[in-house]
Amino acid sequence: MLYGATAMMGFGVAIMQPALPALVRAWVPAHVGLGTAVSTNGMVIGATLGSALSIPFVLPWVGESWRLDLVLWSALTGLIAILFAAVSPRAVSADPDLMSAAKRWWPDWKSPLTWLLGLAFGSTNALYYGTNAFLPDHLVAHGRPDLVGAALAWLNGSQLIASCILLVAADWLHRRAWPYLVFGPLTVAGLLVMVLGDGGWIVLAAAVVGFAAAVPFVLLLALPPALSAPGEVHRTAAGMFTISYTCAVIVPGPERRRLGRQRRRMDRLRAARPLRHRLHGARRRAQPPSRAPRPAHDRVRPAPVRRHDGTAHARGAQPRLGRHPGPPCGSP
Question: Tens of pLDDT along 270-322?
Fold first, then answer.
């Protein structure tokens, strides 16, 4: 049942997202950038509040039942849908050509605009979703699980900061090339710092990646209503979302599998470490203690003693046969 509900939610998102650019074109044609920034800001706030409020507030209120938590958020979504249907403006066109174009829903896969927007939007999504999937495993594999919460919070929270800033600057940045040339390389630089850095640098890089990825995300969403022909906005947006989310799913997959293998290998090594210590201790106890040779400067040589015949020899030395001098001739 949970999988079925998740699939139904995915179908709803797939219908809603291509419809938003078409609504922006129909409702605010003179301020496409601002309208896209407002709708995107609402999506980001909704995604952030749902995850931020569930654990500390909603779950204790509903008795720690995740089912009631889902029911509560679904009821809120239903109320928003009813309010939207009640107060949204009615955009009715009398042009028969536009009416016939609006009935065509399948994306135009032969259009270069669809592929250009889809690949550009897919690159942004792949960076963002790939970072969300890569960052926790990367931190755990490198022994810093304490940074997972802070890094993910800044990665996703900085998107909300960027979206709020774009509420003011969206019309000014709309259809300009330099934001893509600045924030695209900035996202890649943040990923490099995240991989090569440590400690607080990872958290800072996560904030930079989230902020830098949010700017082209919003600006690209504003391009289908601005560049598509009348009545073709929904088809262009549908094709763009299809291509982009395909990239977002395929691109992070191999890296996620590699990190998963690395994490399982580290878990096996960590689990086998106490056994290795016990075997090493048992091996050392089974071996007899070895006496190391004394250094040369610590060896004490016996002091020479004087014999009665005046010759000196070492104490404890035995005389050689045939070389020991006997008593002098004529002695008693």
Answer: 666 666 666 666 666 666 655 555 555 555 555 555 555 555 454 444 554 44
Distance CA 174, CA 179 (A): 9
Q: Which residue is associated with the tokens 């989230």?
A: 210
Angle at which helix 178-196 crosses helix 200-221, to 10 degrees, equals 150
Classify 312 as helix, strand or coil: strand
Structure tokens at 105: 């829903």
Nearest to 249 by CA among 5, 8, 2, 10: 10
The answer to whether residue 205 sits within a structural domain is yes
Tokens of 52: 């931020």
What is the pLDDT of the chain when averaged over all its residues? 77
Q: Are 214 and 179 in contact (CB under 8 A)?
A: no
pLDDT in tens, 135-159: 888 888 778 888 888 888 888 888 8
Report yes or no on 327 lying in a domain: no
Tell me, yes or no, whether 72 lies in a domain: no
Q: Is 164 a domain residue?
A: yes
Report the number of distinct structural domains present in the chain.
1
CA-nearest of 41, 20, 31, 28 to 214 is 41
Domain range spanning residue 41? Answer: 30-49+109-269
Phi and psi angles of residue 204, each rounded to the nearest 5 degrees, phi first? -65, -40
CA of 205: how far to CAs of 180, 256, 292, 293, in Å? 19, 19, 54, 57
